[in-house]
Amino acid sequence: MRSSPFAAVRRLPSAVFVLIALSSACASMGRSMFATPIVELRDVRMKAIGFQGGSMEIILDVTNPNDYRLDATRLTYNLFVDTMRVAFGEIKQTATLEAHKKSEVVVPVSFSIQELIRATQLMSKTGGVDYHVTGEVTAATPGGSFTRPYKGDGHFDNIASIRPR
Question: CA dihedral in degrees (20, 26, 32, 35; nearest 10)?
Fold first, then answer.
């Protein structure tokens, strides 16, 4: 007995529903298996200083805790020294983060002379500064592209790197 050509059409919505459910489940599983990279401040390198301000590079160590490589395609950052935000911005340059490894990410930053004076005053009084960095990282993974917040705290006391190089 032959089935009607309309029988296949009637089964089509069920098949589409199953495909949608499976793809949603895979995406949810990928998101839950994705661990947010760990971001730490390693160094600050002064590039230029002038009467209006200057530029520096903030060197971050970014650790990928996942079992697979990540391609970080976007990074936003807010850097606070004590309670003062001294740098913020966005980088849209791809950085490859190998599985279970630490990678260096260089963040170019511009600053005003007032921000530099306040930060160096804090460092000269206390021998260092407490910092807090927050932001978001967007990473391409085998399970899709994900954006996750990150944050890190620490103490920076390498005053020698504040001098221009």
Answer: -130
Strand spans (E) along 3-157? 38-49, 53-63, 70-81, 84-91, 95-97, 102-112, 129-141, 144-156
Task: Report pTM.
Answer: 0.63
**C-alpha–C-alpha distance, residues 25 and 33, integer Å:** 12
Separation of alpha carbons 148 and 75, rounded Å: 10
- Amino acid residing at 30: G
Q: Say how many C-beta atoms besides its own lie within 10 A of residue 139's C-beta.
A: 24
At CA 92, angle to CA 153 and CA 158, rounded to 5? 35
The predicted-structure confidence for 27-49, as pLDDT tens digits, reads as follows 444 445 778 888 787 877 888 88
Domain boundaries, the chain: 1-33, 35-162
> Considering only the top CATH level, what class is 35-162?
mainly beta
pLDDT at position 19 is 44
